[in-house]
Write the structure tokens for this entry.
Amino acid sequence: MTTGFISYTHADTALKDQLVQHLAPLQREGLIDIWHDGMLRPGEHLDPAVQAALSASDLVILLVSAAFIASEYCYEQEMMRAFARQRDGTARVVSIILRPCQWKGVPVGDDQALSEFVALPKDGKPVISWPDTDTAFDNAVGAIREMLKAGRASGPRNADATTFQPETGVATNRPANASALFGIAAKPTDLDRDRFLREGFQATASLFEEKLAELKASDSRIDTDFERIDSRSFAASAYLDGKRVGQVSIWHGGDMWRNALCLSYDTATSTRNSMNDWLPIEDTADGLAFSARSAMAHVRADGPLDAAGAAAYFWDNFLAQVRSRIR
């Protein structure tokens, strides 16, 4: 199933809610699973949650209006990142023009403008300029539905197959198993994602348990603790002369971050309503990987990570936290 992310400004909340209603039949058909920030729970950390959902999405739907373009967050943190992912071949971006505005010349990176990509409803006519907004959204969602069904029907393609890009009119070669619709590699299954995520979590838990033992053995003043909270979470702590100098919880799963490894500092709990860092799963030309592009830690990672790389990334940042507290 395609995971969809709706990017919008809260000034257009009423129209966003109407779109969500029109997308409901597609959700019931199993074509798409929609996320938007109206689904956040009280107490959840807004920006990490939004960026995690954006990173994990297959399809980003932009609800364009003057207010949307004027919003620094919508433009820089959501739209520009969405188009960067489209250029990477890891997501598809679709714009729905809500209100009349000067949207066509808006830059989206790589010397491209928004007008270079097909916008919905038909001919990019703003939703509120139609006889009624239901008709406009029906037109837009109908096009999305056909796009998703065509993507589902696309079978394996020859490695040298040529696909046509309607947005640019340029024929390009795509890798094996590429979808003519999305221009990205055929999506792994939910089972593949679940197993990859579990492998990453298990590798992280094993590395922490091993490294904590090494840390304890390195100095008589140091003690450590490792606690497996449940099958999807663990906590790790470090102490110097009995005083805690570092603690972290790492988990996966839950409503918000079901396709990501998540980390929270200074806590040892299975509660999963906030986090300090995360590694969402992404599709790459070489298969599934953990993405550190949106990660917030001081010790950065270069490129996509496998299970061992994700484990090392979290450990290095935990150790950096401990060292900063004992200097």
